[in-house]
Amino acid sequence: MAILGDEVFTVRAYSKQVEVHDAMSLALQLHITVPGTVSSSIGLVACARNHCIYMSDCYNSSINRVDLSVVSGYSVKSWSVSTVPAGLSVNMSHNLVVACIDIS
Fold first, then answer.
1. Tens digits of per-residue pLDDT, 7-31?
2. What is the pLDDT of residues 71-95, one digit of tens each?
3. Residues 11, 20 contacting (CB under 8 angstroms)
4. According to the 3-state scheme, what is the secondary structure of the chain?
5. Distance CA 62, CA 8 (A)
6. What is the C-alpha to C-alpha distance for residues 23 and 10, in angstroms, rounded to an integer?
7. CATH pick for 2-101 out of 1.10.10.10, 2.120.10.30, 2.40.70.10, 3.40.50.970
8. 49: closest CA among 98, 7, 4, 2?
9. 52 CB-near residues (< 8 Å, 6+ apart)
10. pLDDT > 90? residue 70
């Protein structure tokens, strides 16, 4: 779960979509489908400065960045990490911190 402004973002197990809820009423507002995910996201964090959310994709060992500031939809960028990404955080310098699971 991540909060950005007046929206709450959630990812359900085995879902390829991010649910966007109103922060006050928790009413579902919309779904964001993130292309390329294989329903294995366990990390989710929001960055207010960059107006985006980051999702870990355990199956593909990658991170997805969903830009929420694009007017006509959402821009998604992905990059790979060396092993299975799990926990995500954004530090005070607005850098993404990724905790990975060592499976060796």
1. 999 988 777 789 999 999 999 999 9
2. 667 888 999 998 989 899 999 999 9
3. no
4. CEEECCEEEEECCCCCEEEEEECCCCCEEEEEECCCCCCCCCCEEEECCCCEEEEEECCCCEEEEEECCCCCCCEEEEEECCCEEEEEEECCCCCEEEEEECCC
5. 23
6. 11
7. 2.120.10.30
8. 4
9. 46, 65, 66, 67, 68, 69
10. no
- Give the integer Cα–Cα distance in Å for 88 and 70: 23
Query: Counting Cβ atoms within 10 Å, is residue 74 exposed (0-12), middle (13-18) or buried (19+)?
Result: middle
Taking the alpha carbons of 84, 89, 1, 80 in that order, is the dihedral positive or negative? negative
Which residue matches tokens 């593909």?
60
CA distance 46 to 41: 14
pLDDT at position 100 over 80 = yes
